[in-house]
Amino acid sequence: RKPKITASRKLLLKSLMLAKAKEEWDQEIVDKQAEKERYLSERITPLYTSGLSLSQLQDLCRELHEKVEIVDEERYDIEAKCNHNTREIKDLKIKVLDLRGKFKRPPLRRVRVSADAMLRALLGSKHKVSMDLRANLKSVKKEDTEKERPVEVGDWRKNVEAMSGMEGRKKMFDAAKSPTGQ
Description:
The protein is an all-alpha fold. Among the domains are: about 40 residues; about 50 residues. About 65% of the residues lie in helices and about 0% in strands. It contains six helices and no strands. The longest helix is centred in the middle third of the chain and has 47 residues. It is elongated and about 120 Å long. It starts with 6 loop residues before the first helix and ends in a 5-residue tail after the last helix. The mean pLDDT is about 80.
């Protein structure tokens, strides 16, 4: 099945879209800055303090303090509304998740990774560490394990009858006491 658009055409379109988005983003930043300058020039009048007497300066300070208090109250009200809205949004998101039901986890696949690849992933590609885990394992000889096992094979019923009752317990006690095992 062939793709409807070639890879080079897709790359060209992607680069054109990114260039257009960058231009719009830059234009948006310039527009925001111009809007900010316009708003500040409307709201803030130049402050002329030269040639004012002490009482006029005090009146000016009182007016400025009143304006600051009004702006501060507005800021506090807006901040309280914003916090209330964010709490409400969080509650609604939780309700939506509850209505959707439980999220089903996708089945995880087992991935086989060698020890070298795991160390490379953990330590980074610049560390060349190779680790042979099998070299550090203790080797066990088959002959040693056969010598340790008793080769005594007998009728199990005799053993059960011999060990039953107090006599069997006495034999086990005696066997444990004597170092030779009689």
